[in-house]
Amino acid sequence: MSVRPSLVALATLFLGAGAAQAFTLEILHFNDFHSRIESINKFDSTCSGEEEKEGACFGGAARLLTAIDTRRDAAEAESRPMLVLSAGDVFQGSLFFTTYSGKAELDFMNRLGLDAMVVGNHEFDLGPGPLAEFAQGANFPLIFGNAVITEEPALAPLAVGPRVIELGGERVGIVGAVTPDTETISTPGPTVTFEAPAVSIERDVKALSDQGVDRIILLSHLGVPEDIRVAQSVAGIDAIIGGHTHTLFSNTDETAAYPYPLMVDGPEGVKVPVVSAGAYSKYLGDLALTFDDAGVVTEATGDTALLDASVTPDPTALDAIGGYSGRIEALKQRRVGEAGADIDGTRESCRTGECAMGDLVADAMLDRVKGQGVTIALTNGGGLRASIGAGEVSMGDVLAVLPFQNTLATFNIAGAGIIAALENGVSQVEEGGGRFPQVAGLRFTWDPKVAPNEGRIREVLVAEGDGYVPIDPARIYTVVTNNFLRNGGDGYAVLRDEGTNAYDYGPNLEDVVAAYLGKRQGFTPPPADRITRAE
Question: Higher pLDDT residue, 366 or 161?
Fold first, then answer.
């Protein structure tokens, strides 16, 4: 396997040991790769050969490798120090992860020549074992940050502090942090816990400062709202490279949420640049930081680059992708149905309101178990990972939407418990939380003006006969969800604690949706009439 070397040693050779008065560091970064080893289309699903020929594809490991190598070669030619960083969530999101459990992602991350990666919440999706194998096989440091892994036998030997990298006689510190929500949105197991990020970041920054390191980068998988709060409150951080919320920072892309970089007022009167590069390897961030002799950032410039057809995929990486694809190509190509219109499963839609993909998945779940007396379906918007375009739908398309191999789970619960579950579901809309509820068999109205968990749910109606009636808090209803939510994932502890007669071992959700589409050729999304946002 051909692997690119880190630029750390090369930069030291080129620049020598003497520190200049002004030190400029270039940082290439990406986040939330989500197993998009093959290129993606405009729906964030795997790009077809036809789309590739049409120049309609983005990202993918081979294109990402070309983009990084091109910039790295230019930096080497000009003796410029450079770091290549990943802000987490390499795991989960395509058939490569489903089939190889992280081994394919490890191969391609090694090829990129990363200087460091912070763990994301999805790195814990298969428990500690596969993550430990990934960390042991990585030719780059994997930073656990505030993830406390010392009590987990598979991970404990990998527990190390913040990293110090020498570049041209200058020392750069890297600290990491992952969302503490990992405990509920992934499956780290009972032996892994998570500190409050601010506590661990402050401790790690102090440890570096005590060593005389005054150029410190936070590699964060906390999400942009938390990144901004950290920038405002924790002293000693010179820049934050972020992930988790899939947020695009750009000065040229009209869809961007923030300029690149976002300069945040930090403690002690300093400005802290914060950046993030979207998701799915569609963009590569390129940040240049200039430090004065005291280690203070005096200038921060750069932008994210769209990795479109103008970037030629690396041919060696494409060959390697082909080698992995053999085992999964037949499954990917199996036709399951046809969509008569686009089915929107974007993060922006499904985590803030009713979305077409949420309606489809909830309807499919309810249809599968309606003969068991189930009348309500509930799923989480964060479990929907892609859209599906109009036309033929393959199993690969469905698996891109539903990559987690969740199973159907049924249970009984009182109406009051359902209301509490919905209250949890709308509690993190502002942060883009994945718990937003997509439903079938009921309708509800929620009020964003009310504080989270303080009564945002204003009305809940349940299907009865040909219409809808107000939910009865005392009545017992039979509900279908996925096993992740039923066991308390995404904050749905009420389903775990108050649900009775639970059965978590139904068919896989992706198979349920594939079968539902197979029976409805030319499927078009129903009108959106289930979730109302009060104004």
Answer: 366
Other C-beta atoms closer than 10 Å to the C-beta of 430 total 10
Peptide linkage before 525 cis (omega within 30 of 0): no
Distance CA 485, CA 492 (A): 6
Q: How many CB atoms lie within 10 A of CB 293?
A: 11
Residue 208's domain comprises 26-321
pLDDT tens for 496-523 read 999 999 988 788 899 899 999 999 999 9
Token readout for 498 is 């108050």
Write out the two tokens for 347.
């993060």
What's the CA gap between 416 and 152, in Å, rounded?
38
Taking the C-alpha atoms of residue 239 and residue 273, their distance in angstroms, rounded to an integer, is 5
Same domain, 48 and 87: yes
- Residue 231 inside a domain? The answer is yes
Q: How far is CA 96 from CA 27, 99, 383, in A?
A: 28, 5, 18
One domain for residues 478 and 510: yes
Can you give the pTM of this predicted structure?
A: 0.78
Same domain, residue pair 529 and 395: yes
pLDDT 10s digits, 272-326: 999 999 999 999 999 999 999 989 999 999 999 999 999 999 999 999 999 998 8
